[in-house]
From TrEMBL:
TPR repeats lie at residues 433-466. This is TTC8 protein. One of its GO terms (biological process) is non-motile cilium assembly. Signal peptide: none annotated. Keywords: TPR repeat. Residues 127-138 have a biased composition (Polar residues). Transmembrane segments: none annotated. GO terms for cellular component: BBSome; ciliary basal body; non-motile cilium. SMART domains: TPR. Residues 98-140 are annotated as: Disordered. The keyword Transferase does not apply. It comes from the Eukaryota.
Amino acid sequence: AGEMGLEPLFQAWSYFRRRKFRECADVCSQLLERPPGEQVARAGPWREAAAAWNLKTRALTEMVYVDEIDMDQEGIAEMILDENAIAQVARPGTSLKLPGTSQGGGPSPAVRPVTQSGRPITGFVRPSTQSGRPSTMEQAIRTPRTALTARPITSASGGYVRLGTASMLTNPDGPFINLSRLNLTKYAQKPKLAKALFEYIFHHENDVKNALDLAALATEHAQFKDWWWKVQIGKCYYRLGLYREAEKQFKSALKQQDMVDTILYLAKVYLRLDQPLTALNLFKQGLDRFPGEVTLICGIARIYEEMNNISSAAEYYKDVLKQDNTHVEAIACIGSNHFYSDQPEIALRFYRRLLQMGVYNCQLFNNLGLCCFYAQQYDMTLSSFERALFLAENEEETADVWYNLGHVAVGIGDLNLAYQCFKLTLVNNNDYAEAYNNLAVLEMRKGHTEQARALLQTASSLAPHMYEPHFNVAILSEKVGDLQRSYTAAQKSEEAFPGHVDTQQLIKQLKEHFAML
């Protein structure tokens, strides 16, 4: 009996239920190491050994388990060498690669910053916002500050490979199950063991090929009538990049058993194939069968947000809150949408709601500080930013806070303080393009043209998707008489933000000037 006077197997199960997976695995290991003669249990020694093996397998899996629905990182190879795109030049509004310029009445890049993929910065960082979909290899390799929400560095297998090394950590003596010596056909005929073994191979060992072999044998043994195995085969195909095969498996599973998870997996396939409208239709059909399902409504809102249709996204996020009024992502996204729509007071209410719910981090206090400043509640502004600096976990977060403090300083007219804040931003994060741009503007005010030009060149090379550095270079060059450079920079600015009126006027002036020459 264990330390609590329980049978070891029951004690292990108790640990598992309380999510103490390390202790559960240790108790199971002790049970499995006993000679068969000592394994006394009412159900017989072999039954106890099988139960201990099954429980240990599940415990080790749970220790490294990651929900596949939200785990989605595209690497450089997947983005640049993508052979699955349906149309290389898609119509605006039908592709995530061409999100369209605020077709849904959302704020323009002049108000709301965009990522390098052309989408507005979201109110909530999630895996799907980290897929940048850059247009060139150079843009994919370079990661500016805004690439913190559009990061194309780790390959799709990168996160999983690191998880796969967990097998060495959990068992210093070597892996718990030697996959190369397993008779998968035998295990496939025992459904209860097969499911636990599949999840162990897939999540803990990260051996997708063996997991796929086991799933194929098991679904064959179940005479293709078990929807669960079809979903697992689909997950394996998705991991291997075989999206069309994955789509077939998920569709087949949905015919047998209507499940929300399967709809989410299938939508993930369509998004990877760059078919957001198909994914939207799938979610809406799912809502007919599962009315009020939060994950489906949230999925629709995310797609609209990624396609730059901000007003539709906001409506669906409000629907999410009608079903679940503590949904952090929906509250954060609605809050950021109100902030960028020039309604800081309303945004403040949403961020205060997050604070009441127990969210307590640097980003929240940073947003509270900005909302307080623009809502003219100056007494709370600096204290919020102080708290944000105190809670910052890394240099990037500290840089964000100092950058926003620089904005506050510009707002109250203290340009010396603003200069110091932007300098501190660059001390913490040397790739902060917006800080280089704003420092250049301050240098131009002081009449330091060459320093301003150098800072603007740095900003435009770090963030070619931003229109401000290009426009400022155009203005600066026109002032000093370098009209050709001014025209080139203005064209880049127009490319980054086609609706910018000042850029269009500058190009028109320069064309008139060139016509006179």
